[in-house]
Amino acid sequence: MPFPDSYPVYPTHRQFIDYLEHYAAAFEIKPEFNTTVQSATTSSSSGSGDVVMQYIGRWLVAATGENAETVVPDIPGLEGFQGKVTHVSDYKSSEAYRGQRVLVVGCGNSGMEVSLDLCDHGACPARVVRDAVHVLPREVLGKSTFELAVLLMRWLPLWLADKIMILLAWLVLGDLTRLRMGRPGDGPLELKETHGRTPVLDYGALTRIRVGDIDVVTTVKSFGKGAQIELAGGHVLTFDSIVVATGFRSNVAQWLPVNDLFNKDGYPKTAFPHGWKGQSGLYAVGFIRCGLSGTSADAVCIARTSATSGGRRPSPPRGPEHATGGASQAL
Predict the structure, then answer these.
(1) What is the C-alpha separation between 20 and 18, in angstroms, rounded?
(2) Which residue among 117, 121, 133, 134 sits deepest, i.e. has the most Cβ atoms within 10 Å of its Cβ?
(3) What EC number(s) does its UniProt record assign (predicted)?
């Protein structure tokens, strides 16, 4: 179901929620909200004493994705920082940070956008950029950068498409090494395809960095007494709050401990495009680090396979079987 014609290229938060609600209504999808899956197994019993409800089905599609659980790096002294420490997943508004010096730890899209939002609403942000990162303009000649990248990859080899993207980024954004933001040796499309690292799109933060509204600092070495932070090289700065934008990871290993499809880190053992199917009716969608296009490809494969296998719909929930705990789901 495509987005409405009235939607912009980059829908708002509210527009995307409206789209999902209309999608669910159109296809009669009824999600089970406020329910936590504690475990999934191919056996007939969960083997757990804290089951509230047990679901029996022919298939299980693991779709919790790459970003199910927050990642916070082990930085010495972080627990002793006396200011407010927030992961970007809990960041709702810049109002709470107005007039504060805020350290944003992370050089990805979330860190860039939060830094700009803080700057636009009266805070004084600084970004920690530890690794080299590809920063691309959001649009080139009126076209979405990602749309252009897909077009180039369709007709050109990956290495050539990467060279063109880097050249366009340099022409539009300039030399970022002057801003203490170097580019990786591998191209942006190659990194996305091989390591799942999405290039950073500039929404206007680079302009604020150039004029000094957003500072770029080196790697944090440790957190000292009170609100002091020691950077690499011994330089010490003081901040009121910290926003940690260091990414997410899969949590499949926590609720699906024994299976043939996922590795110990919660990602498919087989690379895209063959990492969607396991045994005993187990499938995975949204874990192959190829963005929405890869997720769509997985979903189509799973839908076609389940539709042609002649299976029945999952049976209704059974229970409650016990009085405490979460929920169990069996294949």
Answers:
(1) 5
(2) 134
(3) 1.-.-.-
Match 């180039």 to its residue by tokens.
Answer: 152
Task: With a cut of 70, list the residues of the chain below it in pLDDT.
Answer: 43-51, 224-226, 310-331
The predicted pLDDT at position 310 comes to 60
The dihedral through the CA atoms of 204, 208, 213, 214 has a sign that is positive
Q: Give residue 324's pLDDT.
A: 35
Q: Are 200 and 245 in contact (CB under 8 A)?
A: no
Cα–Cα distance for residue pair 74/268, rounded to 1 Å: 26
The conformation of residue 218, written as its DSSP 8-state character, comes to: -
Q: What CA–CA distance (Å, rounded) separates 297 from 243?
A: 34
CA angle, 294 then 300 then 302, to 5°: 105
- DSSP code of residue 39: E
pTM across the whole model: 0.77
Closest CA to 329 of 42, 64, 50, 30: 42
Q: Which residues of 72-111 are buried (b: 16+ CB within 10 A; e: fewer)?
A: eeebeebeebebebbbbeebeebeebeebbbbbbbbbbbb
